[in-house]
Amino acid sequence: MTDLVVRICAGVVCAVLFCLMTVKTVGAMQQGGYKNRLFLRWFRRGDNLYFNRLCVLSLCLALTTTVTALGFSFLGVKWARAISALPFLGFLVVFVFVDLRYALKVPMHRTGRFCRLFIFYLLFVIAVTCGVIELLQWLIDLNGSTLYALVGFAPFAFLPTALPFLLCAVNGVVRVFENKRNAKFVKRAGQVLNETQIIRVGIVGSYGKTSVKNILKAVLSEKYAVTGTPESYNTPIGIAKTVFDKDFAGKQVFIAEMGARKKGDISELCALVKPDYAVFTGVCEQHISSFSSLDNIFAEKSEILKCGARVVCGESLKERVLQALGEDAEGVSFADSSAVLNLRVSATETTFTLRLGEETVEVKTALLGLAAVENILLSATLAYQMGLTAEEIARGLAKMQPVPHRLQLLENNGVYILDDGYNANPRSATEALAALSRFAGRKCIVTPGIVECGVLEEKINGELGRKIASECLDLVILVGDTLVGAVKKGYLEAGGDLGKLKIAREIEESKEILSSWLRKGDAVLFLNDLPDVY
After folding, report:
1. At the topology level of CATH, where does 408-527 sit?
2. Which of 15, 48, 93, 327 is geometrically suited to a Cys-Cys bond with 125, CB 3.0 to 4.6 A?
3. 256 with 200: CB under 8 angstroms?
4. Residue 59: count of CB within 10 angstroms of its CB
5. For a pLDDT cut of 70, what percent of the chain falls above it?
6. Is 408-527 in the same CATH topology as 197-399?
7. DSSP H helical segments within 196-243, as ranges?
8. SS3 118
9. What is the pLDDT of residues 381-404, one digit of tens each?
């Protein structure tokens, strides 16, 4: 009985260390939306090396414990195995602390779901660890050899290589219960929304949703008490969390981003939010990997046109929307670019005159580029329909600050940084390059390419490379190995200078390159800082 207790205690200690040293994998699972497919893509990726490190650890564990057990065999089997456990545990502890040095680009958020998954992962690893130990002890007893008893636990050293797959197994089971729990949570949020008199605004599109939301929030706040989904929350669970947030109480307007990764997502969000007003920004190849074609993307996003809301659409959508709706286009209007007069776009600001009805107002904003002008026009058009005056709209726009990581201009020691890390579609990439070109000094781009474009990814990234070459930049840094091959190929085919091209395995390496290259007056564009799961 005593030996059994010792083995169980040893299994629990090892399991805890196993989970601590692989907690980063739970963070990667979180980044992938708790989808095993995305997690395994990250895990198998060539430049990841995480599995390689686990394999090296397992080999070290197996070698040191075997040599130690054999070396101390003169003390007897029990003492020899006890002493061999010391380097085993030591290596695990060292791995835990070393792994802390390698942070995920997107930090882990210790949400309820994250904590629940980690707890079940820990319990499962404890069960598996103790089970493996008992199995190995049974084989030792069955064999009866003293030599085998000394080295019989060596296979246990390779258990760390199975940990990511154990996490996937746990996630697959937990996901079933989480989906049911989330469905109940979302249903309660819908009931709360139905009981309020709050004005609801939905924002749909392949791009610009977060920017339009932030602009609308700043503008509508001149007349209403406004709340909205935080950051880039655009799923039913994200909307539900906003509804139950303490900031929701007492508000007059609720702005909700509405994202779509599969058919039916927009209909589900419309049924939840029941928007009174909506903005449909536009469509592009983003998420074509999920929808197969641009027509399918439009068909999904255009569900917003059927929910009974008054919808303001981007001008680029006019032909598609009118063709889709025919005689049923009542309640749908379009942002009219002719309402923007005297447009002046510089490296650090954008100014223009905006015509709303019979009124005109001057707009001066730190938001950069033509995409920002379109987003402002969409927001102002909707706000005008919601009863704000041109003067109120202008006041709100004057208070508008750049949206973090969306062509956000930063300045550090005379170096200009364009942070476009959260924009990841062909249209925004073109706008970002145009913004970079407006600076007078040397110019550099840092990018891993554009993702989620399905079968068009190679084509789109090749085009990105050609656009980069056409700008005649002074330094081009491509990060990672996911899509840089296509970008590099397009860049060189368009006559890009190979001497100005650098390949960095990760973003930190690109920063090291920049640290020795940058000088005062230079401008750097960080285009699409991919999460680790890509």
Report:
1. Protein-Tyrosine Phosphatase; Chain A (3.90.190)
2. 15
3. yes
4. 13
5. 94
6. no
7. 209-220, 236-243
8. helix
9. 999 999 999 999 999 998 888 878
Query: Distances from the Cα of 267 to the Cαs of 197, 198, 236, 260, 416, in angstroms?
Result: 21, 20, 11, 10, 42
The correct answer on CATH 3.90.226.10 for the domain covering 197-399 is: no
- Type of residue found at 59: L
CA atoms within 13 A on the CB side of 151: 10
- For the chain, which residues make up each domain, given as ranges? 2-178, 197-399, 408-527
User: Phi then psi for 52, rounded to 5 degrees?
Assistant: -60, -40
- Helix, strand or coil, per DSSP, at residue 521: coil
The torsion angles phi and psi of 445, rounded to 5 degrees, stand at -120, 140
For the entire predicted model, the pTM comes to 0.77
CB-CB contact of 153 with 133 (8 Å): yes
Angle between helices 426-437 and 457-470 (to 10 degrees): 10
Give Cα 46 distance to the centre of its chain.
20
**DSSP run (H or E) holding 294:** helix 294-301
What is the number of helices (H) and of strands (E) in the chain?
Answer: 20, 15
Q: Count of CB atoms within 10 A of residue 46's CB?
A: 9
Which two three-digit tokens encode residue 167? 């996490």
The mean pLDDT of 278-292, rounded to a whole number, is 79
Is 91 within 8 Å of 115 (Cβ atoms)? Answer: no
Q: For 61-116, write each residue's pLDDT tens digit.
A: 999 999 999 999 989 888 998 899 999 999 999 998 887 776 666 677 888 889 99
